[in-house]
Amino acid sequence: MKQILTLLALTAGLHTLFAQTTPLPVICGNEVFSHIVREKYPELDAAFRQTFEEAQRNSHAAAAQRSALNVRVVVHVVWNGPEENLADSIILNQIQVLNEDYNRMNADTGNLRPDFQFVAGSADIHFELAEIVRVQTDALFEIDVLGNDLLSSLKSNATGGSDAWDTEHYLNIWVCKIQPTTIFGFPVGQILGFAFPPNGLANWPEGSNAPTAEEDGVVIDFRAFGSNNPNVVENPGGGDNLVMKGRTPVHEVGHYLGLRHIWGDGGLFGPNDCAQSDGIEDTPFASAQSAFDCDLSKNSCEQVELFYNEDPLDLVENYMDYSSESCMNMFTKGQVAQMRSVLMGPRAGLLDPVSTRQPVAALDCKLFPNPAQDRVVLALQMQDQAEVNIRITGADGRSVLDIPKQTYFPGQQQIALDTRRLPTGMYFVHIQANEKTAVQKLSIQR
Q: What does the pLDDT look like over 388-401, one tens digit per residue?
């Protein structure tokens, strides 16, 4: 894993590293995504962290609201070779795996070590398959690390991919063959999946080549989708093929719902040490990810933790590690609270009722100033005359301000919002005009 960091730094050891026979790693694409954000968009990196921390502060309140949360899923199968065109039975199996794993109904719950049974949690999050969209393509999909492109072509009909359904109201999962990642033509590893952070993509700096709201969602390599998939992923260590049980999508949806890697996101592009944290109280500290194994004796951080009142072993059974998929079997209660908080906050649109099952275009809008104090202006580009509905929610998903509906005409509209009664904190502005929607993140600072 350290090889790729060296490659990205373009050190003098570049050629030597490629000359070595060390097997190439399998990578979670979120490490690549986080690196791109930190390097090219530091202001967005800070916004991501603020959203995570805000959701963390509200997670205990969200945990008390234990109603079932239902998420609609659209699976886009974008295929080139016939083996990539996964059968419906594989798609349905993966939805079943998501529902079992997120609700602790998986058959291997008994494999969790007794010392961690008390922290295992059920999220009461349920996934409903809304549609399978199939697109045959001649395109090949490779992540361009140096060009800061995370498969944008996969998510557009115009470039051989598949347009997203309304990303505020649907979890879009794209399944394709992700080509091995290369730098200057040299292979550096295989990414099996990635997902964008929970606060949506409308906050990317204006004028940058960053993904749009229509690119929000999860991407999975076709070989890692479903537990009944006949395609195989070769072991980067050179041994037997990796056992795939549908846990790669479980892991990536965890990212989509606000979870970090259990070792605190050091590693590939950052330091690995016991000071790294995923921000969840009941996940033990770890200095590094697992190596696609199931080492139940692993204890990479020998320190007493207040939550456990002892030095716990690494929680390798957790879905947010890089352990073998046959070893993974649980989320913690803290992770459950975090995901539910995110789902009732920045991802709250997924819980809204929808009147259409078709892709819905996003509105062209922005907020300024942002951060704001007593007043913020919503700049809204209207294509057609429409009745506009605006509401502001807190990070816990509760409505704090509803703006009376008003009809606006085509053209640039500037709508002033009175935020004097809103305390300092993070909020989300939901805008709907006919069937077009958008969500903008708003920070109030005084």
A: 989 888 765 677 88
Q: Which helix (H) or strand (E) holds 187?
A: strand 186-195
Q: Which residues pair with 187 in a beta bridge?
A: 182
270 vs 407: CA distance, rounded Å: 49
Alpha-carbon distance of 208 to 211, in angstroms, equals: 9
d(CA 32, CA 52): 18
* CB contact at 8 A, 34 and 219: no
Distance, CA of 173 to CA of 175 (rounded, Å): 7
The residue among 176, 193, 181 whose CA lies nearest residue 145 is 181
- Distance, in Å, from the CA atom of 302 to the CA atom of 305, rounded to the nearest integer, reads 9
Going by C-beta distance under 8 Å and a sequence separation of 6 or more, which residues neighbour residue 391?
399, 401, 402, 403, 429, 430
Note the pLDDT of residue 352. 87
Task: Give Cα 218 distance to the centre of its chain.
Answer: 6
Return d(Cα 234, Cα 291) in angstroms, integer.
Answer: 14
Nearest CA to 248 out of 100, 27, 23, 36 is that of: 27
Residue 252 is among the residues annotated as catalytic for this protein: yes
Give per-residue pLDDT as tens, 17-38.
222 233 455 656 665 555 555 5
Candidates 404, 402, 403, 442; CA nearest to 423 is 442
Catalytic residue among 31, 84, 215, 252: 252
Tens-place pLDDT, residues 3-18 = 222 222 222 222 222 2
CA distance 46 to 154: 27
Query: Rounded to the nearest 5°, which phi and psi values hold at 250?
Result: -60, -45
